[in-house]
Amino acid sequence: MRPLMLTSNAPFFAPSTTAVPSHPPFARTRKKSTRYRCTTPITARPGLNYRPSGLNDVGDVIGNLISPLRFEGATWTAEGVRRTAAGLIEPGLVSAREAMPYQAISSNGLVAGTVGHPLENRRAWASHLGNFGETFWPESVSFTQGINRDGMVVGKTLFPAAPLLIYRAFVVDASKRPRFLTLPEGGMSDAIGVNDDGVVLVNVTALSQASPRQKAWLWHDDVFIPLEAPPQCSTVATGFSPDGTVIGYRENSFGQRQAVMWVDGHLVDLGVSPAENFIPHAINDHAVIVGSIRKTGGATTAVRWTPRHGLERLADLTDSHYRGTLIDAVAINTSGHIAVVGQRGQTQEGFVLLPPD
Hints:
InterPro entries: HAF_rpt. The protein has one helix and 28 strands. The chain has one helix at residues 132-136; strands at 36-38, 49-55, 61-67, 77-83, 89-97, 104-105, 111-115, 123-126, 142-147, 153-161, 164-172, 178-180, 188-194, 200-205, 214-220, 223-226, 234-240, 246-251, 257-263, 266-269, 278-283, 289-294, 300-306, 310-313, 318-319, 325-332, 338-344, 347-354. It has a five-stranded mixed sheet, with no helix packed on it. Strands 2-3-4-5 form a four-stranded antiparallel sheet, with no helix packed on it. It has a four-stranded antiparallel sheet with strand order 9-10-11-12, with no helix packed on it. A hairpin with a 2-residue loop joins strand 27 (338-344) and strand 28.
């Protein structure tokens, strides 16, 4: 189902030909029957945080145990963990320093991310390829950020180029050999996701101080497909649905960000005020978007966006006795299950919100 497209109310951008819904922020007129149900939290071991990072249509959830509890400004270590749809906890037996070993999961359960200690030894990893970053780029840091059911993995590799550290997007397909994506406009590239059709989502950063500095693209079958961008605005993609609808934000020259989606490559404003600091993280084929908003002090709140209701706090839509705060929503599947992060005191934990039957 394609998202409803109505008219933009973004105050600092030129009006768009594609529209967005008109609605008050954080609508609360919800019946009891429409509320999400909260599963048992995936509680971290003592002294560890747990953050989910992916969710597939089967219901498998991946995430990472992170230590120490308060890692701001200090080095931290993460260990991958999977919870199956049946509720079984499977330790991943892989870890990384300041990187997520379990970053992405495919529709059929393949997992990919980054492994390695210390920092300079971080390498791209996948469950069916092993530590392929060490094999292909033994002298470089590399990260895996997406994987599909065919085992195609995407990510980025870092290379020193004094005085810069540049990064290049890579793809490893069924041939199990890597290739770098060469951009038509040059610049640094970062492949952040791939769907089951083999379409890759790529963000490009200009090496010069050009404006705009960043631009979002799709790549498929050796062809780069530009996503619509307003003049003098950067565009950054953050995810896309199985059917190819892309989400992200655009940023003007004053640093103001506007959450957007791209439908068939065309830009659609979501109608959320830039003051909300809404960053979308994931979208499903029903155009339901999840993510977080950030307050001035840095605190975040988990939210959902739909074409009908606009932006809503997930805590307002959930039947739960959870005594913590929902601080982020990181993934949503076709069934509408949402992987969220909760915080109680200093401890973060993850669980799944189940939609009404």
